[in-house]
Amino acid sequence: MKFRDAIQSDLATIVEIYNSTVESRMVTADTTFVAVESRQSWFEEHSPEKRPLWMVEDDDKNIIGWVSFQSFYGRPAYDATAEISIYLHPLQRGKGYGKAVLQYCIDTAPSYKIKNLLGYIFAHNEPSLQLFIKLGFEEWGHLKNIAILDGIERSLKILGKRL
After folding, report:
1. In the chain, how long is the greatest CA-to-CA distance?
2. CB-based burial of residue 109 (10 Å sphere; 0-12 exposed, 13-18 middle, 19+ buried)?
3. For 13-36, how does the pLDDT look when each residue is reduced to its tens digit (9 = 90+)?
4. pTM for the whole structure
5. Does 58 score more than 90 pLDDT?
6. So what's the pLDDT on residue 74?
């Protein structure tokens, strides 16, 4: 498994993988597919020096997924805290890649001066919650019934890990 900085030509693949999670109502609060153009400013917020956006590939350069660090709350006092997002290609899910990607991020985050990692995970997304908890994340927040997906109120958990 290899991690490389995402480049502009990766954005369509990033969006395709992201959109593959919309219909499950488990991963994202988006209820319709997003357009590549709508993710351009988000893409540009990432930088290899501070808040990377990585493409994850196998040894044959097949895309496994992508992962990003995003600044928390956008204020300088929170610079040591980052939200992590991991999205795997539909054909790569359930193969243990999520655990390997998350572990890599935990190991690498301090080199970006990150002391706290956050994961925002729907409370009904048990597989993701269990993955993060297995790697030492704890519940730092619970936002009860904050989202409505297909008429059903859903809660959001904030999982955190001090590095």
Report:
1. 43
2. buried
3. 999 999 999 999 999 999 999 999
4. 0.95
5. yes
6. 84
